[in-house]
Amino acid sequence: MEPMIKILLIDKSQSEFRLIGQLLSKIHHTDYQLTWVDRLDRALEEALSDDFDVILLDYLWENGNGSDILNGARAQGCKVPIIVMTDEMEFDVDHSAIRYGASDYLIKGRIDSQLLERTLRYAMERKAVELKLAKLAHYDPLTGIPNRILFRDRLEHAVELSERDGVGFTLMYLDLDGFKKINDTFGHDAGDELIRTCATRLCECMRKSDSVARIGGDEFTLLLENLDSPTDIAHIAQKVIEVISKPMQVGSHQVMVGCSVGIAIYPEAGTDINTLQKNADMAMYQAKQQKGSRYHFFTEALNHEAHRQLLLETELRAALRREEFTVFYQPRVDIQSGEVRGFEALLRWNHPQRGVLYPPDFMDVAEDTGLIIPIGYWVFHRACQDLKVLKEQRQMDLSMAVNLSIRQFNDDKLVERIASIIKDVGVDGRDIEFELTETAIMENIEKVALCMRALSHLGCEFSLDDFGSGYSSFMHLQRLPISALKIDRSFVADILNRQEDADLVAAMITLANSLNKTIIAEGVEDLDQVDLLKKFGCDQVQGFYFGRPSERESLWHNSEVPVSSHSSYGEVRVSQ
Ligand code: C2E
Ligand code: MG
Ligand code: MG
After folding, report:
1. I want to staple 549 with a disulfide (CB 3.0 to 4.6 A). Which of 85, 277, 330, 348 is the partner?
2. CA of residue 328 to ligand 1 center, whole Å
3. Would the CB of 360 count as within 6 Å of ligand 1?
4. What torsion do the CA atoms of 543, 545, 548, 553 make, to the nearest 10 degrees?
5. Does residue 47 contact residue 7 with C-beta atoms inside 8 Å?
6. What would the pLDDT profile of 178-205 be if each residue is shown by its tens digit?
7. Ligand 1 contacts CB of residue 550 (under 6 A)
8. CATH code, residues 307-558
9. For domain 2-137, is the CATH number 3.40.50.2300?
10. What are the φ/ψ torsions at residue 558 (nearest 5 degrees)?
11. Global pTM value
12. Cα of 273 to ligand 3 centre, how many Å?
């Protein structure tokens, strides 16, 4: 017995349904299951449901047209054969139906069992062959992955989507190195096997939403969506190169090939498929010239940036291991008494080749790669140790402010780890203050709020860094345990010569006082600024005038005040 054939009948008349049912029941060697829909508005949904092997469609309706169903079904990728049924006198209709994608037609009133069976069977067989041909035309027979034609379709589609939604995508061209030699040495079968292995490995390392195609002998293309940073893209290229370069078994031999990858990003490398393909190909060619498995971005700027970030990432990892980081401290001073109240811990990196690097030189990469998490713990640990030493040496109340980046909140263990560092080092949680920027807080206010409350239980306080430079929602900020606001350096810089800035700083100070928060001015570089800030009612000041960030050992220099900016000590840096 053959498997059951499922038929969908789209027809308004019940008598037609009965008739078809009767005709089918006379065919003994096959079982049929007939489903009947008598409404046009439900018909398309059923036709697209994938539940049927073949569809019989009445072509003429009073309040609509069977051709709408036919068009709709074909446009939406319905792969089931559709046979239209027309009335006796409508020859031209039959032809138009075939043009719209009908597999065949039957004339009502002239259908008998035999004709019906033959028509159904032929329609299904023809459709199966059609699908097979389409697959042959769109898929590479050797590997089973999309070929050049389907790839161009997909690329076209990606361009359309990107134009509409404004999101980019990445095109990679990949060419094997050393394939020809293997093909010549071990024969075509070995070559084929190698290509198949490459295709499998590529598919395995891509996400579902990406597509891999074979566009020539030893050439593949990759289409990647939802990637925006060049670092992420470079990582994928690197991964692709790694999986291809692993040894492969072909026949009884173990062989190795390399590959070169050219990368074109939409829209920088082109907005139409021809330009994109050409530029990806060109980038691939450049990658090839670099010798050894390499990738290359189409634009020089991106190429440079991706390499800079990747190099920096590797170096940052090594820096953690090799302890190349240090922490410098900058005093925070009470504006009335001039006494040091505490310090802000600022990260420095003694780069083995490039000398001292400052956070703006590497923070973006540390954050993007998540390395800020271990680095942050290292800074916090060191800052706690140094706070302990300073308090013992000076025998006075001191606090330590440590900057926290939003990425550090991605670590679910943040509160736990901070608590254990405080405990291990033996400092008082009440002497610790965390500086957070408004933008960081606003990015994930719910999570940050939870962590802040938990850390408050350890006695830690919080200040809002770079106050005024982002957008603040006071409604939100009021809910958080923030005890101090730090006026961004950019406002303080010009308070002496720009009235607007002076007005703004005065207003911030008034606001902070009314909210009962401590207000700290950053970037104070001379005495006149101090005087004006004092007049405005500022509580604390921090800046080169009172001391440049320096190592713990050189904070106090044979006197009771920290080293001032006029001293030869402290760090020398280009102002940002
Ligand atoms: P920030 O927290 O606003 O730190 C103040 C910055 O202003 C520091 O730059 C400091 O050296 C500089 N500065 C202080 N006084 C003056 C002055 O009078 N004039 C001028 N022109 N500059 C002054 P730095 O150390 O390069 O740090 C830049 C930013 O990097 C910091 O801004 C902070 O957001 C971030 N950062 C520093 N260390 C860490 C850290 O350990 N972890 C995290 N997550 N971020 C850090
Ligand atoms: Mg800060
Ligand atoms: Mg700041």
Report:
1. 330
2. 10
3. yes
4. -120
5. no
6. 898 888 888 899 999 999 999 999 999 9
7. no
8. 3.20.20.450
9. yes
10. 50, 25
11. 0.61
12. 46
